[in-house]
Design a protein that fits this description.
Elements: H1 8-18, H2 32-35, H3 47-58, E1 68-69, H4 82-88, H5 91-94, H6 106-123, E2 127-132, H7 135-149, E3 156-159, H8 165-174, E4 181-184, E5 198-204, H9 221-230, E6 234-239, E7 257-261, E8 277-281, E9 293-298, E10 304-309, H10 314-317, H11 331-368, E11 374-375, E12 384-388, H12 393-402, E13 405-406, E14 409-410, E15 421-425, H13 432-445
């Protein structure tokens, strides 16, 4: 992004306007001990020397340019086409604020509109927005939306224990002080769990362990959706958007609200953020949807244009009456996702999903053949899989790190019953050589 500083004449004009002669005059009320502290700085360096030192410091990071990564658990290392960076790096997008004024925000508004359209196509839903912080807050907002749709009469939220633990934790932070009840979905699933007080059921597909849930019309997700709807509740589905390039979209098996983490769509890992919350729903619930929605219209001359629509004014001036108080201009992350989806296209996204699927299954077969390691579960999986380890995952990961490999997620942190279990992730960026190197390293550290 280019940045043009103020000129000398600009500064002179501004100082004259406020009635001072120099910038230093603005700080005359500050004690000299604060204005001129003793700074024990090292000797000055040239630009070349500074860059060399900064590069040396950066090399201490276990970055993904130098390490093979098999860690997922909600944030994923996918390839980002160069065009995405070029688009989001344009100053008119990079520095844009909330697009309240459509006459000067058509580029941002159209980009968000296109993103929303692609999310709808991806999820099989009718309406999508682009103003949630991440997947976890999208889930929490979906639960509150389900309660709101019932006009507050239904106060129970049922959540599958295989939904991301951090998403469930975020949901719990939204409910203290209210009379909402959050309960775990019990297995085997019985329709008696869904009663007149149930606002929604929240599931994840693929679930936190990477496993795919059946969409069978009777015993799978379609049958589950029917049971939830029969009780008058809503079905909320958490998705990995990359998986939708290959598998059935939630809208086709009865989801009412679809949420998820949009980071895999063209957003790098970024040390944990900023990320993007995907949020989509059926048209009948559109007016209860939290956040910002972009719509298409025409101006007085009949020309196509884009505007903020269905944005309740209460969100800005009467917080207690708002559908939601979460609102962000992280539309830059949505723009990256839109640019990614446009660049990849339908066939490109399917190819990415296929690569993830086949590479993950190759890795799983190789690891399962190592004495002491066992693949857990008989369900089909997408790009993550569960492995029982012969040693604590923390010890294994330390050994892997010494070999230039970032290992999997220690599931014992969130599921005590899964102590010594690791969640491994393989995406399209992992080469066969990297997978084979992981297998070789696990063979070395297994004893």
């Amino acid at each position: 992004m280019s940045y043009v500083p103020h000129t000398d004449s600009d500064r002179t004009a501004m100082l004259a306007e406020i009635g001072v002669k120099a910038v230093g005059d603005l700080f005359l009320d500050v004690p000299e001990s604060v204005r001129y502290p003793e700074l024990r700085l090292p000797a000055p360096l040239s630009e070349m020397e500074i860059l060399r030192e900064l590069r040396s410091i950066s090399e201490q990071n276990a970055d993904l340019d130098h390490y093979a990564c098999f860690l997922g658990a909600g944030a994923y290392n996918h390839f980002v086409p160069s065009v995405v960076g070029h688009v989001v790096g344009r100053s008119e997008f990079y520095t844009a604020y909330t697009p309240y004024q459509p006459e000067i925000s058509q580029g941002t508004l159209q980009a968000i509109f296109e993103y929303q359209s692609m999310v709808c196509a991806l999820t099989g839903m009718d309406v999508a927005n682009a103003s949630h912080y991440d997947g976890a807050t999208s889930l929490a907002e979906a639960a509150l939306m389900a309660v709101s749709i019932s006009r507050g009469k239904r106060r129970k939220i049922i959540v599958s224990p295989t939904v991301h633990p951090e998403y469930r934790a975020t949901l719990r932070t939204y409910t203290p002080g209210s009379d909402l009840t959050i309960s775990n979905l019990q297995y085997p699933i019985s329709n008696t769990q869904f009663d007149d007080d149930t606002a929604c059921l929240i599931i994840q597909n693929p679930n936190f362990f990477g496993q795919l849930l059946s969409t069978d019309s009777e015993n799978g997700l379609s049958g589950l959706a029917d049971a939830v709807h029969e009780a008058g509740a809503l079905l909320v589905v958490v998705v990995d958007p990359i998986s939708l390039g290959l598998f059935t979209p939630p809208g086709e098996y009865g989801a009412d609200i679809v949420v998820g983490e949009g980071q895999p769509l063209g957003n790098p890992l970024n040390f944990g953020g900023p990320y993007l919350g995907i949020f989509a729903c059926r048209e009948e619930y559109m007016r209860k949807m939290p956040g910002r929605l972009i719509g298409e219209t025409v101006d007085t001359q009949g020309r196509r244009g884009f505007v903020l629509t269905l944005s309740a004014r209460e969100q800005h001036i009467r917080r207690e009456r708002a559908t939601s108080n979460i609102c962000t201009n992280q539309a830059l992350c949505a723009l990256a996702a839109g640019a990614y989806l446009a660049a990849m296209g339908k066939s490109g996204l399917r190819k990415v999903a296929e690569l993830c699927y086949h590479k993950a299954h190759y890795a799983a077969r190789q690891i399962a053949a190592i004495p002491g390691f066992n693949l857990v579960g008989d369900r089909p999986f997408f790009k993550e899989f569960l492995v029982r380890c012969p040693r604590p995952p923390g010890e294994i990961n330390e050994a892997l790190l010494e070999r230039g490999i970032i290992g999997g997620y220690d599931l014992g942190r969130d599921y005590p019953q899964l102590e010594n279990h690791m969640l491994l992730c393989v995406t399209e960026v992992n080469t066969k050589q990297e997978i084979d190197r992981l297998v070789e390293a696990l063979q070395e550290v297994a004893p």
